[in-house]
Design brief:
This protein is mainly alpha-helical. It has helices spanning 5-14, 23-49, 52-72, 76-97, 103-122, 126-131, 133-137, 145-174, 176-181, 186-208, 213-227, 231-253, 262-286.
């Protein structure tokens, strides 16, 4: 359906490692080159908005998405994004309308509900519960050409959103009421952000699993915050750290002496960046 052979050959030409001679490794590299800038860019806003718990809730809605797919006879790759976006927008709407409950409380309620719903449906079928392990741990090495196409499509949409709305999102993160006074359409930006973040989180679940998806968003952004001297440079630091962690993690995990899970290796490399950023921040503070 989608012919990407020339893209894979280009990737192998740019990264001439023996482990990248296999087609599935080239597919994984292309997937990560699309996914890691998206998670890094959205991670910056997740950190600025203090929404790490929101990303966690969306990632755990993957179980409920699979359960919905089971009920409606939909493929998980269709049911998960649709359900994730609906949950994300629902959480955002409830947060905006609730005057008595904090954001963490609202997200916690939804988090519990989607996990309980998913487990309730899945527990009815023992065979399905075994299949769900792939969503717990993820596996970027099983990504298909069709998945890469949809990642590329989301990459283009997200790039347009960041070009148009990055400064406005910074303004909203600083003070939503002040942004509204200055005619920024806060509600529209917040709903679009929630929908795009939900899609990025669900795609990340396919790559690194439910257990590590929040780390893929948060760790590069947190390291970038220590390294950067401005909001703009934080964005580019996060992109650089996310890309380098993904490329290094994929290549390291395929080495004979390593043979580790790709998602976990990517997060460990990003954590190394975070430790280095702490040292840089401390040195800069003492100088």
């Amino acid at each position: 359906m989608f012919e990407l052979s020339s893209v894979y050959q280009l990737v192998h030409h740019i990264f001439p490692f023996a482990c990248l001679e296999s087609r599935f490794m080239q597919q994984a590299m292309v997937g990560l080159l699309l996914l890691s800038p998206m998670t890094a860019a959205m991670g910056v806003q997740v950190v600025n908005f203090r929404m790490a718990f929101f990303a966690d809730a969306i990632s755990h809605s993957a179980f409920a998405g699979v359960a919905m797919g089971l009920i409606l006879a939909w493929h998980p790759h269709i049911a998960m994004p649709i359900f994730g976006v609906l949950v994300g927008i629902w959480i955002m709407a409830t947060q905006r309308r609730s005057r008595k409950l904090s954001s963490d409380t609202v997200i916690g309620v939804f988090f519990s509900a989607v996990v309980a719903f998913g487990l309730a449906v899945v527990s009815r079928d023992p065979n399905l519960s075994r299949d769900l392990q792939q969503f717990l741990y993820g596996d970027i090495l099983t990504i298909a050409d069709e998945d890469i196409f949809y990642m590329g499509l989301l990459f283009c949409i997200l790039a347009c959103f960041q070009v148009i709305g990055y400064n406005r999102m910074l303004y909203i993160g600083f003070d939503p009421m002040l942004a509204e006074v200055h005619r920024v359409r806060v509600a529209i930006y917040q709903y679009v952000f929630a929908a795009l973040l939900s899609l990025v989180v669900i795609l990340s679940v396919w790559a690194v699993g439910v257990l590590l998806v929040t780390a893929m968003l948060i760790v590069p952004a947190a390291a970038a915050r220590n390294m950067a001297r401005s909001a703009g440079s934080m964005f580019w630091w996060a992109i650089g750290i996310g890309l380098s962690s993904s490329i290094s993690g994929l290549i390291l995990s395929a080495q004979d002496w390593a043979q580790t899970a790709t998602g976990a290796t990517i997060i460990l490399v990003a954590f190394g960046w975070f430790l280095a950023s702490m040292a840089v921040a401390r040195f800069g503070h003492n100088r």
